[in-house]
Amino acid sequence: MDWQKLLKEIYASGLTQKEMAQKIGVSQPWVNAALQGTRGKKVSFDIGVAIKSLHEAVKVKKIDQITYK
């Protein structure tokens, strides 16, 4: 799993690093290091589940914002 890619997509949705950290259950410096690619590729199971859940929620929110004419 490319955690950095998922985190970048979450960050691009408008959440701050602090908000991301709170929702994932890590520190803001952890999020910053992960976004920069300096923290390594492995994450714990719990953090991985949290990242995937947040990423899915961000995708759903974007879909909900689409207006049909």
Please supply descriptive tags for the structure shown above:
mainly alpha; 434 Repressor (Amino-terminal Domain); 69 residues; single chain
The helix fraction, in percent, is 55-70%
Q: What radius of gyration results from the CA coordinates?
A: 12 Å
Number of helical regions: 4
Named at the architecture level, the CATH assignment is Orthogonal Bundle
Tell me about the largest β-sheet: none
N- to C-terminal distance? 37 Å
Protein name: HTH cro/C1-type domain-containing protein
GO molecular function, one term: DNA binding
Note the topology.
Layout: H1 3-12, H2 17-24, H3 28-36, H4 45-64
Organism: Snodgrassella alvi
GO molecular function: DNA binding
Protein name: HTH cro/C1-type domain-containing protein
Folded structure, characterized:
GO terms for molecular function: DNA binding. The chain contains 4 helices and no strands. It has helices at 3-12, 17-24, 28-36, 45-64. It has a single domain, classed as 434 Repressor (Amino-terminal Domain) (Orthogonal Bundle), CATH 1.10.260. It has 69 residues and is mostly helical. α1 (3-12) packs across α3 (28-36), α1 (3-12) runs parallel beside α4 (45-64) and α2 packs across α3. It is globular.
